[in-house]
Amino acid sequence: MASFKKFDADAILTDPDLGYVYRSMHELAKEFAVLGQIETAKTLISLLLSQYSSEWQLRQIRPLKFAFAEADQWPDEIPLEERTETELAKIVEAITPDFENESDAVDDPSELGVLFMTADGCDDSTGGEARGRSKALVDALALATRLVSKHTPPIEEIEADPNVQKALGLISTRMHANHAIEYLIQRRDIWGLLATGALARKIPVDMDKLEALGKEAIESFTERVKKGRKTHVTEKKSIRELLEALDRNTRTNTRGQYEEMGENVPESLFVLPPATDEQISALECKLDVSLPDDYKEFLTISNGFGRTWNGYHLDSPIFGVDELDWGELYVDDLPVELHETIAGFMDLELSDGREWPSHEKPILLGSYDIFQTWFITPSVTKKTLEAYKQVIESPETPDDVKRHTDNLIVSRYGSWKAFERLEWVVIEMDEGENEAFGTFTQFLQARVRKVAIGVWEGEAEREAGSISYSCRDDQPKPDRIKRRKVEE
């Protein structure tokens, strides 16, 4: 059973979603930085900015400038004029954390108790309460650090302060929690402490393991951006083999899920008997279309398919000949996006104010609650491909947008030529997020990659949210731990 890891070298090298690769680079850089591995964070951000340096991305990395300034280790891609105290002060003002607290303005020792009390009694790692606890603990660490720093003691004495140790200890148990790392990187007043590896020592982290992981991460990301995406094992499987993997891994990984729903694990996700040639022909006649060959092959193996596991919940089923039909989108003019935008919003526009092609009337391939899967017809796909071509060839489109779009499309579809040959595109909609697959087969391949993920709870959840726990020092020896200071 595969585990859901924050850093997965195989996924970095093979996932078609290049946006996922960039996001992983950024998320790992943040955690390496708060653990004192600022050189590794610098290398990852440098690699990221060499590939994607939009205004949106530059805004996202701003808090890490505090770490780079503390260690005086800057990515070459960040110009000298952005490294000044004046510019850093602007960042402090611009990224004020979401939850305000008077301790930010007045260093009142009694406020520490309030902050620790606010952080008490919430063991959840997700949701609003968990986020509030993350904020309270970082505020407590910042306040405790400022209070003990008033007499300018050495950093070792600051770290040894009981209140600093208490805050570090509480933070160290929930590195995977909502906004735990995000709030840490936003506080410039604690980077003098974090840069020494104080948090890593409190967890405690085996620094040899962490450094080895950092080296592996850099090598994996470098290989991906220089050599492109590697073929994933699922791309060599037949449709029958893909369905067998979906069936096997879903039933293995969802026993607890079905118990919570009060249901038995299904004996099989296959819908038998499979569809006959006559049934498939009748379906095409009813819809007045010629369905894609890979979907028709699927129907001859299984006339529909049950809900499959994706690491978090069960996805929608896949419809067979009796259920497949034309459907209505909840938003008629929703634009067709065939590439995943890194910033989360459509960044391509047609000239002269023309609207981007919409889904029009698609075929509903599967549905459960708010989760839906659609077939986009070849006519709509053709209009959308023409829109992409017009934008890429337009002199009004910025060169960096053209380059990023081309990289995203090549990563997902293999080449621009393969992209231009798309016909029946599958769109999966999950809570407002859409993902496109060039063929029904590619859609199945993606589901097989997700279904291999184990249950995301307990230790699996901790490891998913923080590399520090997979690098934990199982037998820490405090008297032998060397304090790692920032180089003067």
From TrEMBL:
Say which domain of life the source belongs to.
Answer: Eukaryota
State what protein this is by name. Answer: Knr4/Smi1-like domain-containing protein
What are the transmembrane regions?
none
Source organism per entry reads Cylindrodendrum hubeiense
Annotated region (Disordered) at 463-488
Where does this protein have compositionally biased stretches of type Basic and acidic residues? 471-488
Residue limits of the Knr4/Smi1-like domain? 274-446
